[in-house]
């Protein structure tokens, strides 16, 4: 697996555009009092899957934004492999979502903020498929701020 910094990425502009779409999904989660994490999957310049965290509403710990987006994208493509696809997600995927990403063989993962506690990279990058490229830090501050303020508000209630 290649691990490149955002600064080195050639398609930085489109990465920001799609990360803004993932942030819109995160906003939808926030409006439903869910931890605000959002994801989109892009294939050939088209968004083919969207998702936001729904673990409270669905009473399902697996209902992470990425899982919703994987399912939506696979439905769109009519196949389980997400080749030539990029996952944009506002927060670094957890181990479960990295594992699911492995099974999809997705080409790229672009995430916003690092999750030091639950992010997959703390558990070893081998969780992802060897073909998968990862870019981190795209609109990272905005992505992190949503989650930070969500938990701050929770504590103050
Ligand atoms: Zn996850």
Features:
binds zinc ion; six-stranded mixed beta sheet; zinc; tRNA_aden_deaminase; 4 helices; Cytidine_deaminase-like; EC 3.5.4.33; 157 residues; tRNA processing; single chain; alpha/beta; Cytidine Deaminase, domain 2; globular
Protein architecture, described:
- Belongs to the cytidine and deoxycytidylate deaminase family.
- The chain has helices spanning 12-31, 65-77, 95-104, 140-156, and strands at residues 3-5, 38-43, 46-52, 85-91, 108-113, 133-136.
- It has a 6-stranded mixed β-sheet.
- Helix content is 38%, strand content 21%.
- With 157 residues, the protein is α/β, with parallel strands linked by helices.
- The structure holds zinc ion.
- Zinc ion (ZN) binds next to helix 3.
Write a brief caption for the model.
By secondary structure, the protein is of the alpha/beta class. The protein has helices spanning 12-31, 65-77, 95-104, 140-156; strands at 3-5, 38-43, 46-52, 85-91, 108-113, 133-136.
The third-level CATH topology is Cytidine Deaminase, domain 2
Low-confidence residue ranges: 5-9
CATH architecture: 3-Layer(aba) Sandwich
Structural domain count: 1
Give the fraction of residues assigned to helices.
Answer: 25-40%
Q: Say how many strands there are.
A: 6
**Proportion of beta-strand residues:** 15-25%
Q: How many H/I helical runs?
A: 4
Architecture blueprint of SSEs:
Blueprint (H helix, E strand, L loop, with lengths): L2 E3 L6 H20 L6 E6 L2 E7 L12 H13 L7 E7 L3 H10 L3 E6 L19 E4 L3 H17 L1
Parallel strand pairs: 1-6, 4-5, 5-6
Antiparallel strand pairs: 2-3, 2-4
Helix pairs in contact: 1-4
Enzyme class: hydrolase
Protein name: tRNA-specific adenosine deaminase
GO molecular function: tRNA-specific adenosine-34 deaminase activity; zinc ion binding
